[in-house]
Amino acid sequence: MATILPRRGTTAPTTGLTQYELAVDTTNKRIYIGNSGGSGDLIGSAPGGSDTQIQFNDGGNLGGDSGLTYNKTTDALTMVGDLNLNGGGIKSNQTTVSILPSTVTTLNIGGSATSLNLGTTTGTTTINSPTVVGSQTTQALYDNVATTMNFARAATSITMGAATGTTAIRNPILRVGNTTGAITTNTTASTNHLTLQPCGKLIIVPTLLTINAGSVPSITVENTDQATGVVEIAGGDLFLTRKTADDLNFTPVNIVFEGGVNNTSETTLTVEEPTADRTITLPDATGTVAVLGTGSTTDGRIPYYDTTTKTLIGASALSYNDGTATFTFDGTVTVGGTVGTTNSTVNLLNATATTINFGGATSSTINIGATGGTSTIDLNSNILKEVELRNYFESKGTVTYTGGMTQDLSFDLSTGNVFVYTTTGSISQFTVTNIPSKANTAVGFTVVLTCGNGLYSVSFDTFSSGSPVWAGGTPPTASNTVGRTDIVSYVTYDGGTTWYGMVGGLNFY
Q: Of 179, 203, 200, 183, which is closest to residue 192 (Cα–Cα)?
Protein backbone atom coordinates (compact mmCIF):
# COMPACT_ATOMS: atom_id res chain seq x y z
CA MET A 1 0.00 0.00 0.00
CA ALA A 2 1.31 3.41 -0.94
CA THR A 3 2.14 5.82 1.81
CA ILE A 4 0.35 9.23 1.82
CA LEU A 5 2.71 11.92 2.95
CA PRO A 6 0.87 15.14 3.81
CA ARG A 7 2.60 18.35 3.07
CA ARG A 8 1.65 21.93 3.29
CA GLY A 9 3.08 24.43 0.92
CA THR A 10 2.44 26.78 -1.90
CA THR A 11 3.40 24.58 -4.81
CA ALA A 12 2.42 21.36 -6.43
CA PRO A 13 4.05 18.11 -5.24
CA THR A 14 7.71 17.78 -5.98
CA THR A 15 8.92 15.38 -8.60
CA GLY A 16 10.94 12.22 -8.17
CA LEU A 17 9.23 11.05 -4.95
CA THR A 18 8.68 7.41 -4.35
CA GLN A 19 5.71 7.93 -2.11
CA TYR A 20 2.33 9.48 -2.79
CA GLU A 21 2.11 12.97 -1.41
CA LEU A 22 -0.97 14.98 -0.42
CA ALA A 23 -0.18 18.68 -0.80
CA VAL A 24 -2.29 21.71 0.15
CA ASP A 25 -1.72 24.95 -1.74
CA THR A 26 -2.62 27.48 0.89
CA THR A 27 -2.02 30.40 -1.42
CA ASN A 28 -4.41 29.38 -4.12
CA LYS A 29 -6.60 27.22 -1.85
CA ARG A 30 -6.02 24.08 -3.89
CA ILE A 31 -5.40 20.45 -2.91
CA TYR A 32 -3.07 18.20 -4.94
CA ILE A 33 -2.19 14.55 -4.73
CA GLY A 34 1.18 13.52 -6.15
CA ASN A 35 2.56 10.13 -7.20
CA SER A 36 5.98 8.59 -7.62
CA GLY A 37 6.12 9.83 -11.17
CA GLY A 38 6.27 13.39 -9.92
CA SER A 39 3.01 14.54 -11.43
CA GLY A 40 0.34 16.18 -9.38
CA ASP A 41 -3.44 15.93 -9.76
CA LEU A 42 -5.71 18.70 -8.56
CA ILE A 43 -8.36 17.15 -6.39
CA GLY A 44 -10.04 20.19 -4.91
CA SER A 45 -10.04 23.94 -4.50
CA ALA A 46 -12.07 26.74 -2.93
CA PRO A 47 -15.13 28.19 -4.96
CA GLY A 48 -14.25 30.85 -7.47
CA GLY A 49 -16.11 34.00 -8.42
CA SER A 50 -19.01 35.62 -6.57
CA ASP A 51 -22.25 34.46 -4.98
CA THR A 52 -24.72 32.66 -7.32
CA GLN A 53 -22.00 32.16 -9.97
CA ILE A 54 -21.80 28.60 -11.25
CA GLN A 55 -18.30 27.00 -10.86
CA PHE A 56 -16.28 25.82 -13.85
CA ASN A 57 -12.64 24.74 -14.50
CA ASP A 58 -10.77 27.93 -15.00
CA GLY A 59 -7.16 26.95 -15.89
CA GLY A 60 -7.02 24.20 -13.30
CA ASN A 61 -8.89 26.12 -10.65
CA LEU A 62 -12.58 26.49 -9.77
CA GLY A 63 -13.78 29.67 -11.35
CA GLY A 64 -17.02 31.73 -11.55
CA ASP A 65 -18.34 34.40 -13.88
CA SER A 66 -21.27 36.85 -13.84
CA GLY A 67 -22.30 35.50 -17.26
CA LEU A 68 -23.34 32.15 -15.74
CA THR A 69 -25.42 32.34 -12.54
CA TYR A 70 -28.14 30.46 -10.67
CA ASN A 71 -30.78 31.99 -8.37
CA LYS A 72 -31.95 29.28 -5.95
CA THR A 73 -34.86 31.44 -4.76
CA THR A 74 -36.44 31.80 -8.20
CA ASP A 75 -34.91 28.64 -9.70
CA ALA A 76 -33.61 30.80 -12.56
CA LEU A 77 -30.48 29.92 -14.57
CA THR A 78 -28.96 32.95 -16.29
CA MET A 79 -26.37 32.79 -19.07
CA VAL A 80 -24.85 35.64 -21.03
CA GLY A 81 -23.46 34.44 -24.37
CA ASP A 82 -24.04 31.41 -26.57
CA LEU A 83 -25.38 27.96 -25.64
CA ASN A 84 -23.68 25.40 -27.85
CA LEU A 85 -25.42 22.03 -28.18
CA ASN A 86 -23.05 19.57 -29.86
CA GLY A 87 -25.60 16.79 -29.72
CA GLY A 88 -28.85 15.85 -28.08
CA GLY A 89 -31.52 18.41 -27.32
CA ILE A 90 -33.17 20.61 -24.76
CA LYS A 91 -35.75 18.49 -22.91
CA SER A 92 -38.37 19.05 -20.24
CA ASN A 93 -40.75 16.87 -18.27
CA GLN A 94 -43.30 19.71 -18.11
CA THR A 95 -46.31 20.09 -20.47
CA THR A 96 -45.78 23.87 -20.76
CA VAL A 97 -42.30 25.29 -21.25
CA SER A 98 -41.42 28.94 -21.98
CA ILE A 99 -38.19 29.72 -23.85
CA LEU A 100 -37.01 33.34 -23.63
CA PRO A 101 -40.53 34.58 -22.83
CA SER A 102 -40.04 38.10 -21.48
CA THR A 103 -37.62 40.65 -22.85
CA VAL A 104 -36.26 39.15 -26.05
CA THR A 105 -37.16 41.27 -29.09
CA THR A 106 -35.03 39.44 -31.66
CA LEU A 107 -34.77 35.63 -31.59
CA ASN A 108 -32.61 33.73 -34.06
CA ILE A 109 -33.27 29.97 -34.30
CA GLY A 110 -31.38 27.57 -36.55
CA GLY A 111 -29.32 30.15 -38.37
CA SER A 112 -27.57 27.47 -40.45
CA ALA A 113 -30.28 24.82 -40.22
CA THR A 114 -31.49 23.26 -43.45
CA SER A 115 -34.39 21.59 -41.65
CA LEU A 116 -36.39 23.19 -38.82
CA ASN A 117 -39.29 21.43 -37.10
CA LEU A 118 -41.71 23.26 -34.77
CA GLY A 119 -44.34 21.33 -32.84
CA THR A 120 -45.47 17.74 -33.17
CA THR A 121 -47.47 16.08 -35.92
CA THR A 122 -50.66 16.73 -33.92
CA GLY A 123 -51.91 19.61 -31.79
CA THR A 124 -51.45 23.34 -32.35
CA THR A 125 -48.30 25.41 -32.78
CA THR A 126 -48.86 29.11 -32.03
CA ILE A 127 -46.56 31.95 -33.13
CA ASN A 128 -47.69 35.14 -31.38
CA SER A 129 -45.33 37.53 -33.16
CA PRO A 130 -47.22 40.10 -35.28
CA THR A 131 -44.71 39.64 -38.11
CA VAL A 132 -42.94 36.50 -39.34
CA VAL A 133 -40.20 37.28 -41.90
CA GLY A 134 -38.23 34.89 -44.09
CA SER A 135 -34.76 36.01 -45.18
CA GLN A 136 -34.68 33.93 -48.38
CA THR A 137 -36.01 34.96 -51.79
CA THR A 138 -37.89 31.64 -51.96
CA GLN A 139 -39.73 30.33 -48.88
CA ALA A 140 -41.72 27.10 -48.58
CA LEU A 141 -44.48 26.73 -45.97
CA TYR A 142 -45.99 23.26 -45.46
CA ASP A 143 -44.99 22.40 -49.01
CA ASN A 144 -44.67 18.61 -48.82
CA VAL A 145 -47.15 16.56 -46.80
CA ALA A 146 -49.74 18.99 -45.42
CA THR A 147 -53.16 18.28 -47.01
CA THR A 148 -55.21 20.63 -44.81
CA MET A 149 -53.81 23.98 -43.70
CA ASN A 150 -55.64 26.45 -41.45
CA PHE A 151 -54.13 29.92 -41.60
CA ALA A 152 -54.94 33.00 -39.51
CA ARG A 153 -58.44 31.76 -38.66
CA ALA A 154 -59.18 34.64 -36.27
CA ALA A 155 -57.54 37.33 -38.41
CA THR A 156 -59.70 40.25 -39.54
CA SER A 157 -56.97 41.53 -41.88
CA ILE A 158 -54.64 39.33 -44.00
CA THR A 159 -51.92 40.69 -46.30
CA MET A 160 -50.40 38.31 -48.86
CA GLY A 161 -47.64 39.11 -51.29
CA ALA A 162 -45.70 42.29 -51.99
CA ALA A 163 -46.93 45.43 -53.72
CA THR A 164 -45.45 44.05 -56.95
CA GLY A 165 -44.92 40.58 -58.34
CA THR A 166 -47.25 37.57 -58.47
CA THR A 167 -49.03 35.61 -55.72
CA ALA A 168 -50.08 32.13 -56.89
CA ILE A 169 -52.66 29.86 -55.24
CA ARG A 170 -52.43 26.61 -57.15
CA ASN A 171 -55.51 24.76 -55.86
CA PRO A 172 -58.09 24.15 -58.61
CA ILE A 173 -60.84 25.33 -56.23
CA LEU A 174 -60.40 28.44 -54.08
CA ARG A 175 -63.23 29.14 -51.64
CA VAL A 176 -63.18 32.65 -50.17
CA GLY A 177 -65.60 33.70 -47.44
CA ASN A 178 -67.91 31.48 -45.42
CA THR A 179 -66.39 27.96 -45.38
CA THR A 180 -69.84 26.35 -45.18
CA GLY A 181 -71.06 28.15 -48.29
CA ALA A 182 -74.45 28.71 -46.63
CA ILE A 183 -75.98 31.92 -47.99
CA THR A 184 -79.74 32.06 -47.41
CA THR A 185 -80.52 35.14 -49.51
CA ASN A 186 -78.71 37.71 -51.61
CA THR A 187 -79.64 40.39 -49.08
CA THR A 188 -78.46 38.64 -45.92
CA ALA A 189 -75.83 39.95 -43.51
CA SER A 190 -72.52 41.20 -44.86
CA THR A 191 -70.72 38.22 -43.25
CA ASN A 192 -72.05 36.06 -46.05
CA HIS A 193 -70.72 38.37 -48.75
CA LEU A 194 -67.30 38.56 -50.38
CA THR A 195 -66.13 42.12 -51.01
CA LEU A 196 -63.02 42.91 -53.07
CA GLN A 197 -61.66 46.44 -52.60
CA PRO A 198 -58.53 46.72 -54.77
CA CYS A 199 -56.34 49.77 -54.28
CA GLY A 200 -56.28 50.37 -58.01
CA LYS A 201 -57.19 48.02 -60.84
CA LEU A 202 -58.32 44.45 -60.24
CA ILE A 203 -56.99 42.45 -63.19
CA ILE A 204 -58.16 38.85 -63.62
CA VAL A 205 -56.16 37.02 -66.28
CA PRO A 206 -56.86 33.29 -66.76
CA THR A 207 -53.55 31.80 -67.86
CA LEU A 208 -52.58 28.34 -69.09
CA LEU A 209 -48.90 28.03 -69.94
CA THR A 210 -49.73 24.86 -71.88
CA ILE A 211 -53.16 24.75 -73.54
CA ASN A 212 -54.29 21.29 -74.53
CA ALA A 213 -56.45 20.71 -77.56
CA GLY A 214 -59.94 22.05 -76.90
CA SER A 215 -58.92 23.87 -73.71
CA VAL A 216 -59.83 27.55 -73.35
CA PRO A 217 -58.69 29.66 -70.36
CA SER A 218 -61.85 31.07 -68.76
CA ILE A 219 -63.36 32.53 -65.61
CA THR A 220 -66.65 30.89 -64.57
CA VAL A 221 -69.16 32.40 -62.11
CA GLU A 222 -71.47 29.55 -61.16
CA ASN A 223 -73.90 28.79 -58.37
CA THR A 224 -72.96 25.33 -57.10
CA ASP A 225 -76.59 24.20 -56.80
CA GLN A 226 -77.23 25.15 -60.45
CA ALA A 227 -79.31 28.17 -59.46
CA THR A 228 -78.79 31.67 -60.82
CA GLY A 229 -75.30 33.10 -60.39
CA VAL A 230 -75.15 36.86 -59.96
CA VAL A 231 -72.37 39.27 -60.92
CA GLU A 232 -73.14 42.74 -59.55
CA ILE A 233 -71.21 45.98 -60.17
CA ALA A 234 -72.32 48.58 -57.61
CA GLY A 235 -71.47 51.81 -59.40
CA GLY A 236 -68.66 52.66 -61.79
CA ASP A 237 -67.93 51.21 -65.19
CA LEU A 238 -67.54 47.66 -66.46
CA PHE A 239 -64.63 48.27 -68.80
CA LEU A 240 -64.01 45.57 -71.41
CA THR A 241 -60.71 46.17 -73.14
CA ARG A 242 -59.03 44.46 -76.02
CA LYS A 243 -55.99 42.23 -75.86
CA THR A 244 -52.91 44.45 -76.21
CA ALA A 245 -50.06 41.97 -76.38
CA ASP A 246 -47.10 42.37 -78.69
CA ASP A 247 -48.86 40.51 -81.47
CA LEU A 248 -50.43 42.52 -84.26
CA ASN A 249 -53.86 40.89 -83.92
CA PHE A 250 -56.03 42.83 -81.48
CA THR A 251 -58.55 40.41 -80.03
CA PRO A 252 -61.96 41.97 -79.20
CA VAL A 253 -63.68 41.27 -75.88
CA ASN A 254 -67.02 39.54 -76.45
CA ILE A 255 -69.89 38.84 -74.07
CA VAL A 256 -71.05 35.26 -74.73
CA PHE A 257 -74.33 33.81 -73.43
CA GLU A 258 -74.18 30.01 -73.29
CA GLY A 259 -77.32 28.14 -74.31
CA GLY A 260 -79.28 26.43 -71.55
CA VAL A 261 -80.89 23.36 -73.16
CA ASN A 262 -78.69 23.37 -76.22
CA ASN A 263 -75.36 24.39 -74.74
CA THR A 264 -73.59 23.95 -78.06
CA SER A 265 -75.07 27.27 -79.21
CA GLU A 266 -74.20 30.68 -77.87
CA THR A 267 -75.27 34.30 -78.30
CA THR A 268 -72.26 36.58 -78.64
CA LEU A 269 -72.25 40.36 -78.17
CA THR A 270 -69.32 42.05 -79.88
CA VAL A 271 -68.31 45.62 -80.68
CA GLU A 272 -66.66 46.91 -83.83
CA GLU A 273 -63.38 48.78 -83.50
CA PRO A 274 -64.50 52.32 -82.49
CA THR A 275 -62.99 55.34 -84.21
CA ALA A 276 -64.27 57.74 -81.51
CA ASP A 277 -65.97 57.63 -78.10
CA ARG A 278 -69.46 56.14 -78.50
CA THR A 279 -72.44 55.91 -76.14
CA ILE A 280 -75.38 53.50 -76.57
CA THR A 281 -78.32 54.20 -74.24
CA LEU A 282 -80.96 51.59 -73.48
CA PRO A 283 -84.36 53.24 -72.94
CA ASP A 284 -86.27 53.16 -69.65
CA ALA A 285 -88.70 50.59 -70.98
CA THR A 286 -89.50 46.89 -70.96
CA GLY A 287 -89.47 44.98 -74.23
CA THR A 288 -87.41 43.13 -76.80
CA VAL A 289 -84.43 44.70 -78.53
CA ALA A 290 -84.52 43.63 -82.19
CA VAL A 291 -81.33 43.22 -84.19
CA LEU A 292 -80.61 44.11 -87.80
CA GLY A 293 -81.12 41.23 -90.19
CA THR A 294 -81.05 40.56 -93.94
CA GLY A 295 -80.99 43.66 -96.13
CA SER A 296 -81.35 46.10 -93.21
CA THR A 297 -77.79 47.40 -93.34
CA THR A 298 -78.03 48.70 -96.92
CA ASP A 299 -77.83 52.50 -96.92
CA GLY A 300 -81.24 54.20 -97.10
CA ARG A 301 -83.39 51.15 -96.38
CA ILE A 302 -86.01 51.43 -93.64
CA PRO A 303 -85.93 48.27 -91.48
CA TYR A 304 -89.10 46.54 -90.32
CA TYR A 305 -89.66 43.63 -87.90
CA ASP A 306 -89.95 40.11 -89.29
CA THR A 307 -91.63 37.63 -86.90
CA THR A 308 -90.07 34.59 -88.59
CA THR A 309 -86.43 35.63 -88.18
CA LYS A 310 -87.16 37.89 -85.15
CA THR A 311 -84.96 40.57 -86.72
CA LEU A 312 -85.30 43.93 -88.43
CA ILE A 313 -84.98 43.29 -92.17
CA GLY A 314 -84.87 45.72 -95.08
CA ALA A 315 -85.92 45.81 -98.72
CA SER A 316 -85.31 48.15 -101.65
CA ALA A 317 -89.10 48.72 -101.87
CA LEU A 318 -88.98 50.72 -98.61
CA SER A 319 -86.21 53.33 -98.42
CA TYR A 320 -85.41 56.97 -97.73
CA ASN A 321 -82.84 59.23 -99.38
CA ASP A 322 -81.83 61.93 -96.91
CA GLY A 323 -79.94 63.80 -99.63
CA THR A 324 -83.06 64.40 -101.70
CA ALA A 325 -85.54 63.95 -98.81
CA THR A 326 -87.30 61.29 -100.86
CA PHE A 327 -89.32 58.42 -99.43
CA THR A 328 -89.71 55.38 -101.71
CA PHE A 329 -92.28 52.62 -101.24
CA ASP A 330 -93.20 50.05 -103.87
CA GLY A 331 -96.39 48.48 -102.63
CA THR A 332 -99.77 49.19 -101.07
CA VAL A 333 -100.30 51.76 -98.33
CA THR A 334 -103.13 50.94 -95.94
CA VAL A 335 -104.24 53.98 -93.98
CA GLY A 336 -106.64 53.57 -91.08
CA GLY A 337 -106.48 57.18 -90.00
CA THR A 338 -105.42 60.54 -91.40
CA VAL A 339 -102.48 61.38 -93.63
CA GLY A 340 -101.51 64.90 -92.61
CA THR A 341 -98.82 67.47 -93.22
CA THR A 342 -97.55 70.71 -91.71
CA ASN A 343 -96.70 72.27 -95.10
CA SER A 344 -98.98 74.63 -96.96
CA THR A 345 -98.03 73.02 -100.28
CA VAL A 346 -97.85 69.27 -100.76
CA ASN A 347 -96.99 67.43 -103.98
CA LEU A 348 -98.66 64.03 -104.27
CA LEU A 349 -97.40 61.66 -106.97
CA ASN A 350 -96.28 64.54 -109.14
CA ALA A 351 -93.30 62.98 -110.89
CA THR A 352 -93.77 59.84 -112.97
CA ALA A 353 -97.23 58.48 -112.13
CA THR A 354 -99.36 58.22 -115.30
CA THR A 355 -102.35 56.48 -113.72
CA ILE A 356 -103.63 57.24 -110.23
CA ASN A 357 -106.54 55.27 -108.77
CA PHE A 358 -108.50 56.61 -105.81
CA GLY A 359 -111.25 54.67 -104.06
CA GLY A 360 -110.79 51.17 -105.41
CA ALA A 361 -113.95 49.85 -103.75
CA THR A 362 -117.16 49.48 -105.75
CA SER A 363 -118.78 52.36 -103.91
CA SER A 364 -116.39 54.90 -102.47
CA THR A 365 -116.71 58.40 -101.09
CA ILE A 366 -113.75 60.68 -101.68
CA ASN A 367 -113.73 64.04 -99.93
CA ILE A 368 -111.27 66.67 -101.10
CA GLY A 369 -110.83 69.80 -99.07
CA ALA A 370 -112.48 70.96 -95.85
CA THR A 371 -116.23 71.18 -95.36
CA GLY A 372 -115.91 74.95 -95.03
CA GLY A 373 -113.85 77.46 -96.97
CA THR A 374 -112.63 77.12 -100.53
CA SER A 375 -110.58 74.29 -102.06
CA THR A 376 -108.97 74.61 -105.47
CA ILE A 377 -108.31 71.60 -107.66
CA ASP A 378 -106.14 72.43 -110.67
CA LEU A 379 -106.12 69.62 -113.22
CA ASN A 380 -103.70 71.53 -115.47
CA SER A 381 -105.95 71.05 -118.53
CA ASN A 382 -106.04 67.30 -117.97
CA ILE A 383 -109.02 65.04 -118.57
CA LEU A 384 -111.59 64.40 -115.83
CA LYS A 385 -113.46 61.32 -116.99
CA GLU A 386 -116.90 59.91 -116.15
CA VAL A 387 -117.62 62.37 -113.39
CA GLU A 388 -120.98 62.90 -111.79
CA LEU A 389 -121.17 66.45 -110.43
CA ARG A 390 -123.68 66.67 -107.64
CA ASN A 391 -122.95 70.26 -106.70
CA TYR A 392 -121.35 72.42 -109.37
CA PHE A 393 -119.97 75.94 -108.98
CA GLU A 394 -118.32 78.27 -111.48
CA SER A 395 -115.75 80.86 -110.46
CA LYS A 396 -116.06 84.55 -111.16
CA GLY A 397 -113.05 85.67 -113.16
CA THR A 398 -111.10 88.90 -113.36
CA VAL A 399 -112.49 91.61 -115.66
CA THR A 400 -110.31 94.47 -116.91
CA TYR A 401 -111.77 97.56 -118.69
CA THR A 402 -109.71 99.77 -120.95
CA GLY A 403 -111.42 103.00 -121.94
CA GLY A 404 -110.33 105.62 -124.42
CA MET A 405 -109.97 104.80 -128.08
CA THR A 406 -110.06 101.00 -127.76
CA GLN A 407 -112.89 100.70 -125.20
CA ASP A 408 -111.84 97.07 -124.54
CA LEU A 409 -113.27 94.67 -121.89
CA SER A 410 -110.79 91.82 -121.12
CA PHE A 411 -111.56 88.39 -119.58
CA ASP A 412 -108.78 86.27 -118.03
CA LEU A 413 -109.86 82.62 -118.31
CA SER A 414 -107.14 81.51 -115.84
CA THR A 415 -109.07 83.25 -113.06
CA GLY A 416 -112.56 81.88 -113.79
CA ASN A 417 -115.24 81.33 -116.41
CA VAL A 418 -118.03 83.73 -115.26
CA PHE A 419 -117.34 87.46 -115.62
CA VAL A 420 -119.65 90.00 -113.94
CA TYR A 421 -119.28 93.67 -114.84
CA THR A 422 -121.24 96.96 -114.63
CA THR A 423 -120.47 99.29 -117.51
CA THR A 424 -118.67 102.55 -116.82
CA GLY A 425 -118.25 103.44 -120.46
CA SER A 426 -118.86 102.14 -123.96
CA ILE A 427 -117.46 98.69 -124.91
CA SER A 428 -116.47 98.17 -128.51
CA GLN A 429 -114.75 94.73 -128.24
CA PHE A 430 -114.02 91.73 -125.98
CA THR A 431 -110.48 90.38 -125.40
CA VAL A 432 -110.10 86.84 -124.07
CA THR A 433 -106.72 85.87 -122.52
CA ASN A 434 -105.18 82.61 -121.24
CA ILE A 435 -107.36 80.38 -123.40
CA PRO A 436 -106.46 76.71 -122.62
CA SER A 437 -104.81 75.31 -125.73
CA LYS A 438 -105.45 71.60 -125.87
CA ALA A 439 -106.64 69.61 -128.84
CA ASN A 440 -110.15 68.21 -128.89
CA THR A 441 -111.36 70.34 -126.03
CA ALA A 442 -114.07 72.98 -125.73
CA VAL A 443 -113.57 76.18 -123.74
CA GLY A 444 -116.41 78.47 -122.72
CA PHE A 445 -117.19 81.44 -120.54
CA THR A 446 -120.22 83.60 -119.59
CA VAL A 447 -120.50 87.40 -119.46
CA VAL A 448 -122.96 88.96 -117.00
CA LEU A 449 -123.19 92.64 -118.06
CA THR A 450 -125.23 95.30 -116.21
CA CYS A 451 -125.86 98.72 -117.72
CA GLY A 452 -124.38 101.53 -115.67
CA ASN A 453 -125.47 104.37 -117.93
CA GLY A 454 -127.93 104.40 -120.85
CA LEU A 455 -125.57 106.55 -122.92
CA TYR A 456 -122.96 103.75 -123.15
CA SER A 457 -122.95 101.34 -126.10
CA VAL A 458 -121.95 97.67 -125.93
CA SER A 459 -120.95 95.23 -128.74
CA PHE A 460 -121.28 91.46 -128.10
CA ASP A 461 -120.08 90.66 -131.62
CA THR A 462 -116.54 92.00 -131.73
CA PHE A 463 -113.48 90.07 -130.37
CA SER A 464 -109.90 91.30 -130.49
CA SER A 465 -108.95 87.85 -131.73
CA GLY A 466 -111.29 85.37 -133.40
CA SER A 467 -114.78 85.83 -134.80
CA PRO A 468 -118.05 85.13 -132.96
CA VAL A 469 -120.93 83.44 -134.74
CA TRP A 470 -124.56 83.42 -133.66
CA ALA A 471 -127.59 81.29 -134.12
CA GLY A 472 -129.44 82.67 -137.18
CA GLY A 473 -126.41 84.91 -137.86
CA THR A 474 -127.71 87.81 -135.73
CA PRO A 475 -125.85 88.97 -132.59
CA PRO A 476 -127.87 90.16 -129.59
CA THR A 477 -128.39 93.86 -128.78
CA ALA A 478 -127.36 94.97 -125.32
CA SER A 479 -130.03 96.41 -123.06
CA ASN A 480 -129.35 100.13 -122.80
CA THR A 481 -131.38 100.78 -119.71
CA VAL A 482 -129.71 101.60 -116.44
CA GLY A 483 -129.87 98.66 -114.04
CA ARG A 484 -130.83 96.11 -116.69
CA THR A 485 -128.63 92.94 -117.02
CA ASP A 486 -127.76 90.83 -120.07
CA ILE A 487 -126.24 87.30 -119.91
CA VAL A 488 -124.32 85.98 -122.93
CA SER A 489 -122.16 82.81 -123.18
CA TYR A 490 -119.35 81.90 -125.61
CA VAL A 491 -117.70 78.57 -126.45
CA THR A 492 -114.82 77.68 -128.76
CA TYR A 493 -113.64 74.31 -130.08
CA ASP A 494 -110.52 75.49 -131.87
CA GLY A 495 -108.60 77.44 -129.22
CA GLY A 496 -110.36 80.79 -129.81
CA THR A 497 -110.32 81.01 -133.61
CA THR A 498 -114.12 80.78 -133.70
CA TRP A 499 -116.43 81.63 -130.81
CA TYR A 500 -120.01 80.45 -130.69
CA GLY A 501 -122.26 82.95 -128.98
CA MET A 502 -125.41 82.00 -127.04
CA VAL A 503 -127.83 84.32 -125.35
CA GLY A 504 -128.66 83.26 -121.85
CA GLY A 505 -131.10 86.08 -121.37
CA LEU A 506 -131.45 89.83 -121.94
CA ASN A 507 -132.96 92.75 -120.06
CA PHE A 508 -133.03 91.11 -116.59
CA TYR A 509 -134.29 93.43 -113.88
A: 183
